[in-house]
Write a structure and sequence with these properties.
- This protein is 9% helix and 41% strand.
- With 362 residues, the protein is mostly beta strands.
- It has two domains: 50 residues, Monooxygenase, CATH 1.20.1280; 302 residues, Neuraminidase (6 Propeller).
- The strands form seven sheets. Strands 14, 15, 16, 17 and 18 form a five-stranded antiparallel sheet that branches. Strands 3-2-1-27 form a four-stranded antiparallel sheet, with no helix packed on it.
- The protein is globular, with a radius of gyration of 21 Å.
- This is F-box protein.
- InterPro entries: F-box-assoc_dom_typ1, F-box-assoc_interact_dom, F-box-like_dom_sf, F-box_dom, Gal_Oxase/kelch_b-propeller, SCF_F-box_component.
- It comes from Cardamine amara subsp. amara.
Length: 362
């Protein structure tokens, strides 16, 4: 019987089960329910569970859709496997229209159109935390966690650009439910470019940044443990962060970073993947080019199958009721477009999302 299994063996077995299945196993017995709700088990399950490839995409009527993209058949297929809505049950079950999403560990940090609040949301468990935004708060938000305590924090930032030297930052600690002004030492001569294209990896947030003194583009990160910005990481080669529209950033399996770049005076784009990034980033970052393409309909987000060297992106058609179209691009520039039945409210985007049982603020 399951109850007779040694505790460590039971944990090793269950932590490899996908979170969506573990939800249904909670009612099996009190011991399993207690284990599944245990904070350390949730973290272990997120790290060890089989990584499926579901992706979230914004959708009309206040919904977020879960897609499954099958790349194993000769002709790729896309299936809508579920839909979830952001609802605040304390206010007569109002459905909120999601405007922006930042993803970290199966948690979504969302901004909405109707409210002067942000919300952190686990779609798998249904847990939410609504957070009021202070007056004069910066307009961009990112989610990360402290490596020491694994407690989640929200960074509010203005960003740098060539016309604006305002470097206002604030941080919200979910465990204490409090905002505080963040007095970080600005990194000299840096512009935080494309601040809305941030991504999360191992609890840190990454952006493109430009060193005005050295005239170099790289990656800047924010460490939520020390609550400070960290060194500029080099890109495979230099490009103009202001003029080059083809400059995107994405995580891979919460281990590596992916960048889409375009060399100046060329019409081809390149996908580069980093080496595995350690928590302390002590090892020098290196890059490997995995895809070189002449495809020209690059969206604001994308996913890459590293082994097959296939890129998957999504855009909204200007015809057919503005439905979402998933594009699959191979190394030889072969492109397949798969029409969906979805009609996104905005230009759709992908998130490399894995359902998790992570709880916050407990």
């Amino acid at each position: 019987m399951a109850s007779e299994l040694p505790q460590m063996l039971l944990e090793e077995i269950l932590c490899r089960v996908p979170a969506t299945s573990l939800k249904r196993l909670r009612s099996t017995c009190k011991e399993w329910n207690r284990l599944i709700n245990y904070k350390k088990f949730s973290r272990m399950q997120l790290d060890k569970a089989t990584k499926q490839l579901p992706v979230f995409m914004l959708q009309k009527r206040f919904k977020v859709c879960l897609l499954s993209v099958n790349l194993h058949s000769e002709i790729p297929t896309v299936e809508v496997t579920g839909e979830v809505s952001l609802i605040e049950h304390s206010t007569t079950s109002i459905k909120y229209k999601i405007e922006q999403v930042f993803h970290c560990d199966g948690l979504l940090l969302c901004t909405t159109r109707q409210d002067s609040r942000i919300v952190i949301w686990n779609p798998c468990t249904g847990q939410t935390r609504w957070i009021r935004i202070p007056k004069n708060c910066c307009p961009h938000f990112a989610l990360g966690y402290s490596q020491a305590s694994k407690s989640y924090k929200i960074l509010s930032y203005q960003g740098w650009d060539r016309y604006n030297d305002d470097q206002g930052f604030a941080i919200y600690d979910i465990s204490s439910s409090s905002w505080k002004k963040l007095h970080v030492t600005p990194i000299p001569n840096y512009d935080l470019t494309r601040c809305c294209y941030a991504t999360s990896l191992k609890g840190k947030t990454y952006w493109f940044a430009f060193d005005k003194k050295e005239e170099q583009t790289g990656l800047l990160s924010f460490d939520y443990t020390r609550e400070r910005f960290e060194r500029l990481l080099c890109l495979p080669y230099q490009c103009d962060p202001y003029e080059d529209l083809f400059l995107y950033l994405s995580p891979v399996k919460n281990e590596k970073l992916l960048v889409l770049l375009r060399r100046q005076n060329t019409s081809r784009e390149e996908i580069w993947i980093s080496n595995k990034i350690d928590d302390d980033e002590a090892e020098e970052m290196s890059w490997n080019k995995i895809l070189d393409s002449g495809y020209h309909h690059w969206p604001r987000s994308f996913l890459v199958h590293e082994e097959k060297k296939i890129l998957v992106s999504c855009h909204r058609s200007t015809f057919n009721g503005r439905r979402a179209i998933v594009s699959v691009v191979w190394e030889d520039d072969k492109t397949t477009q798969v029409k969906t039945t979805l009609t996104p409210s905005y230009e759709p985007f992908f998130v490399d999302y894995v359902p998790s049982l992570i709880q916050f603020g407990l």
